[in-house]
Amino acid sequence: MFSSIVVGTDGSDTATEAVRQAVEVAKTACATLEIVSAYAPVPEQQLRQERLEAPEDVQWAISPHQEVEASLSEAAEIAREAGIDVNTHACQGDPVDAIIDVAEENDADLVIVGNKRMSGFKRLLKLLLLPSVPNKVSRRAPCAVLIIKT
Fold first, then answer.
1. What is the pTM for the complete model shown?
2. What is the structure's pLDDT at 84?
């Protein structure tokens, strides 16, 4: 059925729910889970300043993808606790591009993303002006897409 499943996360509660659902699908299918998170580049000058302000023993850890690595580690732990083979991917750039690239590189059979619940004007504005990550992924994915209602 599925041998490689890609799931996107940004560390949010909705993304964590998508990861949990992806773990259940991967467990049922005996599939490998590829967990993806994207990050924006941070100017080197800003990084230098943050390193100077941090305690000496943690300065080495300040990097553009520090938070992404922490989110990926937490998501991977959910999968490992369920006995799932898991790989993580911290990708610089757009989340949609990151998810699609990892799906293509791993010949994914399924991509899983969470929807972000919004209501009222904010939701209408986003629907009209800014296509969502799940919407863009569903249009560009090289395989089936499952959008988890979170």
1. 0.79
2. 97
